[in-house]
Each structure stands twice: as C-alpha cells, then as structure tokens.
Write a structure and sequence with these properties.
single chain; 7 strands; two-stranded parallel ribbon; elongated
C-alpha cells in the first residue's frame, strides 16, 4: 500500500471520528505526519471540546526539561487520568531520541510497561508518537518492535505517489488539477509533500475565483515557473523587500520563460489593491475573518491573510497609491491604449522602478 493511500485512509478515518488509542508515525515526510497529528487533535476535540485542556506535547530533545524524557515518563503520563475531561491527547515528538533508562534492568521494565500499556491502553488517552527516519534494523528492536501494530511509515514519496498526493490535495481544497498540470507541478516542485501543498495553495491564490475550479498546466507554469526562484510569488517577495535589482531580474527571467507581462501586471495590481484596503481605517475595526473576506481571500486563500497584513506595514498609503497608478499606466501601455510606448521589457523594468521607488 502506498504512503499516500495510507495517509488518505487515516485522514478519512479521523474525519469520521474513528480514533485508535495509540499511533506511531515515523519517516522523513514530516508534512504528512504533522497533518495527521493535527487531525488526531481535531477529531479528539470533536468528541470532547474540553480535551484541549488535556493536550500535552513532549519533545524528547527538549533542552529545557529538568531531566531527559524516558519511556517510563511517557507511559506514566499517558496512564494519568485527564482533568475536567473524558479524554486526553499526549503527543511525543522525536520518539527515536528518548533517553534510555539508567540500567538494563530498568530499561527492560520500561519495555514491559509499554507492552502492557499497548495490550490494554486506557480508554481516556490517545497517545501519538512521532519520529524521523529510522533504519530497518532498528525497527526490529524494542521499543519499535512492540509498536509494529500501530506503526505508520512515511518515507519520501516516489513520483507516482507525489502525483497522487497532488491530485488529492488539490481536491481537498475544492480544485482539480489537469493531468498536464500534475506533470508540470511534480517536474518543477519535486516529490516533497510540503512543497507540493505550498505550491498548490499559491496557485489557488494566484488564480482567484473561477467558474470552473480547474488548475491547468499554464497556470502551474505562471506560478511555479521554470524554477522556484522565478515565479510570481518570489517576485512579490522581492517587491515587498523593495529590492529593485532582484525584482527587475525576476521580471526579465519570467518574460523569457513566456510569462505574459499583462499577467504579471494583473497579479501585482490585485496584490497592491489588497494591501491598500488593509490600510483603510474601516479595516482596522474588522475582525480577521471579516477583513479576509473583504480583501477577496476565500477558502484556502485565507491562509495568506497575516502575510498581507505584514506586507501592508511595509508600504505607506502614498506608496501603494503610486504603485497602483503605475500599474494602471503600464497595463494601458501594454494593451496599446497609451501614449507611452516601447519594448515590453523596458515597460516592465520602468514599472519596477516606479513601484520600488514609489
């Protein structure tokens, strides 16, 4: 069974509120593990809203702990009754880094404790253990061998698995990737689920609202581009940083790779209109949810709201207004409805100077 199939099945099970008493997630695909831990927590809170009061996260490598975390410590905490709640969640990160007991006898007793816990886990606790990559020979030893029935491995994906994940992840956000879009996405982004998810969210934000929520290969190219260094979001970061040299270089590279100048102007116009709205007095009185809707961020796009707030702080109202005017003039010039004329590249470089110096 593929790693993405395991992830999807676990995700669907958790969404239905089906919780197991113990989980052990390990592997280099940290994004999938983080998502599942988050979904375990969400599923638990649906069962018992007060479980938040009994949510504990332990880090085996925490330097601030008075003493290193041991297996006995974990079992002791997991066996403790929750307070003011029917359920508790204990998450142990870096489980592969837990400290061995001081003697072999104590270590053996800790393994026995774990074995007994797994045979009869308390109905009041959900225990989630996570770890990085573990060698196969180590998995055959205690304590991992004791956990084999609750173990889920998430090693780096193969290309076919990454493509499957991209399709499923876009579906989770209410969008569909064409076959060509999937191929382009994996080609440029690679097989990291974290990177794939981040790029899909960027593409959805870039596209905005469409009658048909379908992502095409052309839209993947416009956002991800021939490399992650030259795309509309990296250009946005360079503009926010007011880096004229970098933003100008990106403009030229994007145009060389067939990104339409009008598409760049359109996106930057939308960007500056959003942060212009956030500077208005009436927006200061809104809740984050209200402001998110008002600036046109819907669904998964809301993830970027705090970014836009920080971007707005980098520009004065006058700078934003001047940038919007410069973008409008360039839009007309590119369409041939202006006295301003010249090579498209010169028009775009001139635009960058106006925006950065605005």
């Amino acid at each position: 069974m593929s790693k993405t199939t395991i992830f999807s099945e676990l995700e669907n099970k958790l969404k239905r509120g089906k919780l197991d008493p113990v989980y052990f997630f390990y592997g280099r695909e940290e994004f999938l593990i983080e998502k599942l831990v988050s979904q375990v927590k969400d599923a638990l809170l649906k069962k018992d809203k007060d479980a938040e009061l009994n949510f504990s996260v332990l880090f085996a490598k925490d330097p601030n702990r008075p003493k290193p975390l041991t297996l006995s410590d974990i079992i002791s905490l997991a066996a403790t009754m929750p307070m003011f709640s029917e359920l508790r969640l204990v998450v142990v990160k870096d489980f592969d880094e837990i400290k061995k007991e001081s003697t072999k006898e104590k270590q053996k007793l800790a393994f026995i404790e774990l074995e007994q816990y797994l045979k009869n886990p308390p109905p009041t606790t959900i225990l989630v253990l996570t770890a990085g990559e573990i060698e196969k020979k180590e998995l055959e030893k205690e304590p991992y061998s004791l956990l084999k029935d609750v173990t889920y491995a998430f090693a780096p994906l193969k290309e076919t698995e990454a493509a499957q994940f991209a399709v499923e992840q876009s579906n989770r956000y209410g969008w569909k990737l064409t076959d060509e879009a999937v191929q382009k996405l994996i080609l440029f982004v690679g097989t990291s689920t974290r990177e794939i998810d981040a790029e899909i969210r960027k593409i959805i934000l870039y596209i905005g609202n469409k009658d048909e929520q379908i992502i095409t290969d052309a839209e993947v190219m416009q956002v991800v581009g021939v490399s992650k260094e030259y795309n509309i979001f990296e250009l946005q970061r360079a503009v926010v940083a007011k880096d004229l040299r970098q933003s100008s270089g990106m403009i030229l590279m994007m145009m060389e790779k067939d990104t339409e100048p009008l598409a760049i102007v359109g996106y930057l116009t939308s960007f500056f209109l959003k942060i212009w709205k956030l500077k208005q007095p009436e927006f200061q009185k809104m809740t984050s949810a209200e402001a998110t809707r008002e600036i046109g961020l819907f669904g998964n796009q809301a993830y970027f709201f705090n970014d836009y707030k920080s971007y707005a702080d980098r520009f004065s109202s006058e700078e934003i207004e001047n940038a919007i005017l410069a973008l409008g003039e360039t839009d007309l010039a590119l369409k041939g409805f202006s006295n301003i004329s010249g090579d498209e590249r010169l028009l775009m470089l001139s635009l960058m100077k106006k925006i950065i110096a605005a």
